[in-house]
Amino acid sequence: MIHFSGVSFQYPQQDCVLSDISFTISPGEYVIIAGTNGTGKSTAAKLINGLLLPTEGEVRYKEYRTSNEQELGTIRQKIGMVFQNPENQIVASTVYEDVAFGLQNLCLSPEEIATKVRLVLERVGMLDNIHADVDSLSGGQKQRIAIAGILAVEPDVIIFDESTSMLDPEGKQQVLGLMRELNRKGITIISITHDMEELAEASRLIVLDHGCIRYDGPPGKLFEEDYLSIPGLAAPFAVNVRDALRSKGIPLPRNLFCMEDLVDGLWKLH
């Protein structure tokens, strides 16, 4: 569905941010793109839906190329993006007006817009706030409104670019739960993050390091031992606990990388 073919990117008068990377993301995947700061994660996200264009190589969504300006409208309708700060995506003063904005651009009737707005707000658990002032909402609620606005135009893919990094723990869990639910219902999820605690959500992990792909595969396999070879890559808390316990002679499997698996592994030792 999404294809990177020999993609490199360089900002003007700066070093190369991405260097000859290639990968394919299939429909229905839940992919996390991770790495330390400055490794090109957010640049890759912006290349996916044409906010940036590659210096070399090609980025495609299905048969549509981001380099073709006439195809960008279709790409951006089908690939939504949720940014780090939800306030950067809010364009209206009330919840209803904000979610309706994208639908108005599709020239739908007021009745169709009203129906769709209610449906997507119910889907993200914000229907009770349909007439609320956006400024009265919490960070997590604002992020869910941003997601509702994207869902309203029926995307195939949603990119979350560090979308939980500014939220409190409760807001973060609300957004992560919504991401899981959307993926279960068939939407392809691409999450850009440096928070390794989110890895349990994903079916696939792509790790960038100095603009290159250092790992592409199941999250659990990386944290069996390969993560130690990637400079600056932090392990999830459960992996650190697992390794500390193994160093004390407790025979835990090396494929445990999230808290749920760690608890199950310890339980089985009794």
From TrEMBL:
CDD domains: ABC_cobalt_CbiO_domain1. It is found in: Cell membrane. Residues 2-235 form the ABC transporter domain. The keyword Metal-binding does not apply. Keywords: ATP-binding, Cell membrane, Membrane, Nucleotide-binding, Translocase, Transport. GO terms for molecular function: ATP binding. The keyword ATP-binding applies. It is a peripheral membrane protein. Belongs to the ABC transporter superfamily. NCBIfam families: ECF_ATPase_1, PRK13648.1. This is Energy-coupling factor transporter ATP-binding protein EcfA1.
